[in-house]
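Quarterly update from the structural biology core.
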Amino acid sequence: MASGVSNNSKTITSDEYFQNFCVEILTRHYFIRSAAVADHVGHLMATACRRGLAPLMTQEESSRAAAQAAIRAATRNKFKSKIGELKFSLSRYEKLVRATIPIKNGEKTKFLLLLTFDSEAEADSIILKRILPCVAENQDYFLQ
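Predicted structure, tokenized:
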């Protein structure tokens, strides 16, 4: 999925690319419940959920959660000089695990990858071994 071109040589739109990317993320591990791409202010651009999954939040609640994730990601930059660059953040709840992965262009966050996992997931390991490599493979498209 590393290119922005389909098999018939037509360039796909950003919305299609982001949607395909979310679907690709879901294939990376069976504990991933959902994947979404949001812009730097938290506006959802694409989402995908695991087949047969009953969402725990409405679309409106998910949109609000994305905006809040963007605000939290922006405030974490305050301590970067002391503790280093944020790779991702995790929150573990009773019913699921949420993760926010910034996709940066230099110093500036351009997009956020928002994930949810089943509560029993070892989300840290899944992100490090399966998700971050996928983001890196697609970095050029996100940052064009």
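Residues 89 and 128 are 12 Å apart (CA to CA).
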